[in-house]
Amino acid sequence: MTRGYHASSSSFSLKYMHSNSSISTQTNARTNTNKSSPTKAITEIDQFSSVVTPHVEIGIKPSPLTSALMKTDRLLVESLSSAGYDCVVLPITNARYKGNCKNYFLEFRKRNMIHGLNTSDDTPTDGNSTSNYHGRSSSYSSSMMDTPSSGNDPNFSYETSFDHENGTTQNNTESIDDATYDLDILDVPYPELSEVNVVNGPHISKTVGLLSSWVELDNENGLINEFSLQVISNEVSYAQYIGIHSLLIAPPKNMSNLQIYAANINTILEKFPAVCISVSLPMCEDSVRDPTSGKIIPTTDPFSTWDVWNSIRIQCNYNMHLSVSLGSPKTNISQNVVDRWLLEPVRFYLLSSYRFIPNSKHYPVLNKFNQLIIWKFIQRKALYPPVLLLHGIDKLKKEFAESLNLNVRSSTGSRSQNSEMNPDDDKSSKSGNTSFLEYLRYLVGMSYKNNQLLPLENFTINNFLSLNLSFDKLMSPESLQSPLSPLTVNLDNNTYNVFEQDHAKYDAYERAIIAALRDLSAIDRFSYFPQKIGNNNKSCETLKFGSDNANNLKLKILVVGSGRGPLIKRLFSAIEKLDLNINHISITTIEKNPNAIIYLQERNREHWGNRVTIYNCDVRHWKPTYEAEVGFHLVISEMLGSFGCNELAPECLDSIQRYCDKKNCILIPQEFTSYVAPVISPSLFSKVCRIKNEHKFDRPYLPVWDEMDLMSTDYAKVWTFNSKTCLTVKNYSIFDNKHNKRQAHVVLKCHRKGTIHGLIGYFSAILYKRVEISTCPTGLGPEPRNLVSWLPIYFPIEQPIYITDDQELSIFMKREYKDTRVWYEWSMEAFIYLLSPSQRLSTSISNDQSSAISGKSAEASQVRVRTAATRIHNPAGKGYCMKLC
């Protein structure tokens, strides 16, 4: 029996069906419960064609002036909540606290020098850094800007996707020796009542905290670094105390000091393990326009911001409470970039008012590419969709103010279309704010009509939505399934029921059976079948021989591993479609599950006229009751696993070769092939890391729903098993399995940078002639398109491999055996091609000569340099094996 997507989810659900999945908005581990029953919603759509729209939260970040116009933070949050927003982003502290901290810093620096005098100005003054930035070009840094803000250095401003608090940092011309100050006595004051923007109350459950951006967590200077860390720690401590557990933090200002920034983030996560920190980053570098030609200059590295996030995440050891908040792009970006971010824990999707344009009716809408990105995030992350976070909408553009006919008051009392919206103005708050909100609600509601996923992904996510599991359960290591062990584990009734929903698989099997029966009926010994089968001619020749001969001349069919009988059902359907006389066909089935046998016996009696001979035993130990029963002409089996051979199909089929007709026997499937590809999947790797088992990286897993993406442009064939091999095995013994050993060494090209977390395995099978099934990612998904019975199989690696653009990956895999055990071993190496010294010299001497070198010569002049290697995983099957008995 196969291992299916929903089958895995159903077994997983048995443990957690009654778990409480209600979690507040403010936590990172939240449930995405639909407002209506998910199960009811699923029945209203085709589970393969689209994903049930989950409940997507929409939040808002009001401007400082809008916040100031409200008497209390509670009134502000409650007002925006009543307007329809699910959460509100508020800074934890205000300008008074910044001023107090600055004064403390200056006083400390003045009074606590241990030796020497400092003449440089090292004060972390107001916010947007003009600091020592040498890690990126100015075009990259400016692309971080989402809205214009004052006081920015034209050469660098590493802003996130919405306005953090404004400020500047002076460029240090002289550095201070850290030993100048005694950092042990540095004690930044905690905020007081007048210095905080949020106080305790029932509104806290709908509040997301914004940490100060004027500090410099990436500053190399020890004093500024420690000062910044203490400021942030004070804010986090207070936020945690009043019940805010989800906090947004600004990105690093200086990419050259990313390690310093990551170290401070990690310190905060370790100090406050109940708090979730989300780093704000743009989705991609924005394209820039050439000032001379006016042409758009594409970004040099579309994955640069992902690279920043990846470095922070790795240095923080894949901390579960660390996430990323993405700013929506200004222009259309590569789908590869979007797909990469879909793998990440995106907590918020940030939407500035500057991303909206007025439609024909002058209402705010998003460009098509941003709509598609949101739909893809909603659908792929339907189990835990990011919050759509609006900001800047209370600084409406002129065209929106005019079209919405807003009554916005300036500070002088006159009407001003570009002034801050007055939250006390009922028409303003309801028209201005809700126009964006209502549009996003509409966009979310239209998600199911704009499917961006493959049928397999739709089917999996829909079934998980129906389980209504909490985020914690989904992210737990227990959600990783172990590959099925068909020879030692009997499936339950619910799992059989789920497998049988895969009509695409059984349709393919039926087509293969029809083709095989058509070919077999053309053989002379079966000439009693109609010459033109399938022509609805009900007549059939009457045999002129005795019962013994009739039994010997029957077309004999064996179904192996029949479960509850879906293959037998399709077999009878094929016989009927071909108009074959069932009296001339002998059907035998072998099933080891004693519970399924009862169901088979009932089906045989009620639907099949007791025409099926049923045996309850392991196929490898089966012996026929009488000799005339054997000599099978058609053997149909359903023992393929996620990797093809990982449910011991080769070994099981070996055992029946002695009972097959020596001249005319067809096996379905005829052959099956295994494939592998390198994969990036932070969530999978993180789950495996949290498994408490010393051999956790020495075993394969079936990822139930985890996001993953291939790092190579293709997948590689590793080995094939075919029916000819099975039929030539002599005197099969489970202790003599050398012919089923395999090994493969394959090389794949990886054109995009990323981190490889392991290998993903697929298979394809030729059922008969042109009838094939495949789980390989062809771009359109499995073949047939609605095939959902198999999960891919994940082979983890203990130490992830980081690769740059255009590297080569060498994969070595083995299928080994010893005694009654079968197992896999795997390892990888990464390579990069560099020009040899002679080629570099030739290039520097003459570009013309270099360009004249043929492609073959140029390739020969390159040096293949190894950049990484993994250990051999699962040696001698010490972590995982498949048992033959």
From TrEMBL:
Limits of the PRMT5 oligomerisation domain: 672-882
List, in alphabetical order, the Gene Ontology terms for molecular function in this entry.
protein-arginine N-methyltransferase activity
Enumerate the Gene Ontology biological process terms: methylation; regulation of DNA-templated transcription
Classification via InterPro entries: Arg_MeTrfase, PRMT5, PRMT5_C, PRMT5_TIM, SAM-dependent_MTases_sf
Pinpoint the PRMT5 arginine-N-methyltransferase domain residues: 478-668
Gene3D superfamilies assigned? Divalent-metal-dependent TIM barrel enzymes (3.20.20.150), Hnrnp arginine n-methyltransferase1 (2.70.160.11), Vaccinia Virus protein VP39 (3.40.50.150)
Q: What is this protein called?
A: Protein arginine N-methyltransferase
UniProt source species? Dekkera bruxellensis
